[in-house]
């Protein structure tokens, strides 16, 4: 496990999808991440700038998005006397700040790496602008990875406690991801990840997506990554991409 280390990262992330509704919603995030690692402990702080272009039916959340009940019950094919034309607009500002604390461990004489994480998404994004729910969300998760071979399978499982708003009551949900990481060489690796999350209400789909990540270490102090993903259900954006640059101190 790593000794004391401070990481500073900047990233660009963009998603686009219709989420089973009439209009497409595009979400752009520019997060700044500060991470402090001291042996087995890891503390993280993420402060994002966010921009949302859409009709207001999609709200960014800690894991994916949440759709308003009114949007789900009034949107459809556009036919019928109850249909209405929604206005597409762009709003931007501070996103939801996220903090987390993690503890990593490897049992003696084992090739399994584990990390237990508790995370809080603080409701700092403007609910009036549709940049967030305005409520705090909490999650706990356990990550495990088998590190014996070049191809390293991993699995993450957790539970998300979602803050209810005045308009909607959201279900607390189970989430998980699984995949593998392959080291091409000491500087380059790529991962394939399948993500799953239960639906946040009784009328929303489960969230399922498939992503590909490439990580590259340029030097002792600098590293970067890129990713692409595709949504497999209406609770996830149709497509997404991102890149990040990290400086180690």
Secondary structure elements and their pairing?
Layout: E1 5-17, E2 25-38, E3 41-54, E4 58-60, E5 65-67, H1 69-74, E6 89-94, E7 98-105, E8 112-121, E9 137-146, E10 151-161, E11 173-185, E12 188-197, E13 207-217, E14 222-231, E15 239-248
Total helical segments: 1
The share of residues in helices is: under 10%
Judged by helices, strands and strand pairing, the structural class is mainly beta
Tell me the count of domains: 1
Main β-sheet, spatial strand arrangement: 1-2-3-7-8-9-10-11-12-13-14-15
Question: What amount of the residues lies in strands?
Answer: over 45%
CATH class label: Mainly Beta
CATH superfamily: monomeric porin ompg
Please sum up the structure shown:
Helix content is 2%, strand content 59%. The chain is an all-beta fold. The model is unreliable at 69-83 (pLDDT under 50).
Outline the structure in words.
The protein has 249 residues and is an all-beta fold. The protein has one domain: monomeric porin ompg (Porin, Beta Barrel), CATH 2.40.160.40. 2% of the residues lie in helices and 59% in strands. The strands form two sheets. The protein has a twelve-stranded antiparallel β-barrel with strand order 1-2-3-7-8-9-10-11-12-13-14-15. A two-stranded antiparallel sheet has the order 4-5. It is globular and about 60 Å long. The two termini are 16 Å apart. About 6% of the residues have low confidence.
